[in-house]
Predict the structure.
Amino acid sequence: MSRVIHVDSPGKRRNQSRRSIAEILRLLGRKGQIDDEARDMAAMLVYLLRDIKETVDESSSAWEKRGYWMKVERFVRDWEWIPELADNIEDVIRHSAWDLLPELLADLSPHFDDIHIKTMTRKPSEWRGAYRKLMAEPPATITR
């Protein structure tokens, strides 16, 4: 019997989400005003941060099963900023407090400085409709 290789690992999904966030941050930085696309991009940030949190939980759970307690503790601590920022961005979106968004984006940006973007690879269709989808959901907070 051969080994089962998972091509969609938590680490790969986390890196894809990080790349998407970095591109959205760059595009949002160029926007002069909050339009429909900017609302969709902001909502997509919430979804991407939730996805990163999910991958962190998956990875830490797998490492805990193997007894890598120190590695889990360090790893989780490195990502502990995600729930609060995701909740804050969602709160800004739900209450239409768009004047607070630039400050939150400035808080988010340093976590993605290590991603170098030469070419935009994400298409606008990836975040189109995210605002409507988020507003249709009941307000939720990420489990911390």
About this structure: The longest helix spans residues 36-65. The mean pLDDT is 90. Residues 10-136 form one domain. The chain has one domain: 10-136.
